[in-house]
Design brief:
216 residues, Penicillin Amidohydrolase, domain 1, alpha+beta, disordered N terminus, 4-stranded antiparallel beta sheet, single chain, 8 helices
């Protein structure tokens, strides 16, 4: 009686699968060996687009970008948080003169607030939140005064924006401040920390008026 010696169909199939798996692993090994993964440079880029119909839109480009290649839009920013290396963080913002002044101002505020949200929060903790724990009554009075003054100033700026270069600049200040607050809240949402941190609206003005309030 003749006996056929050889592999069964099942064995042949498993051998083929194993061979293909080895080939795939080898290809991946060669690819990752020859093309090392790029490390993040720690610098962040973003742009703001605007149209009359869709209003403002922020675009975040992440890391490892050439500042000159970032889409301009209304404004673009390049953020370098080098506190550990140099003790400083650097934020570069460029706006485009083809857009209305108020659009440029708001877009610049959006970029600053969204990219620097963590630094803004730390600054608020150091200069407002923590000191106010021991001076709550005083801080309540400061906030009330700021709110009343801001309301009056905003009304004057809006009424005289078209006829006075001075009030035009004041109006742009508040416009950029509004953009900064909106950008900060957007940054907090992106970081998924909305339940953990918050800054009262009037305190954004407080932080920008620190030099005028220090003698109170």
């Amino acid at each position: 009686m003749l006996k056929v010696v050889g592999a069964s169909w099942q064995q042949t199939r498993w051998t083929t699968i194993m061979l293909l798996a080895v080939i795939v692993i080898a290809i991946f090994a060669i690819f990752f060996y020859e093309v090392p993964l790029q490390e993040n440079d720690g610098y962040y880029s973003a742009s703001v687009l605007w149209t009359k119909t869709s209003s403002f839109r922020e675009i975040y480009w992440g890391q490892n970008n050439d500042p000159k290649s970032i889409i301009r839009g209304v404004a673009r920013a390049y953020y370098k948080p080098d506190m550990i290396k140099t003790g400083w963080s650097t934020l570069e913002i460029e706006t485009q003169p083809d857009y209305p002044d108020w659009v440029q101002a708001y877009a610049a505020g959006l970029l600053e607030g969204s990219l620097c949200w963590q630094l803004i929060y730390w600054h608020w903790q150091n200069t407002v939140a923590t000191p106010c724990k021991a001076k709550q009554e005083f801080c309540d009075k400061v906030r009330k005064q700021l709110e009343e003054n801001s309301k009056h100033t905003r009304e004057q700026a809006a009424a005289n924006d078209k006829i006075s270069s001075y009030w035009h600049q004041v109006n742009l200040f508040y416009t950029q401040l509004d953009g900064l607050e909106a950008g900060w809240r957007s940054g907090v949402i992106r970081s998924r920390k909305t339940r953990l941190i918050n800054i009262p609206k009037i305190d954004f003005l407080w932080m920008n008026s620190g030099s005028d309030l220090k003698d109170l």
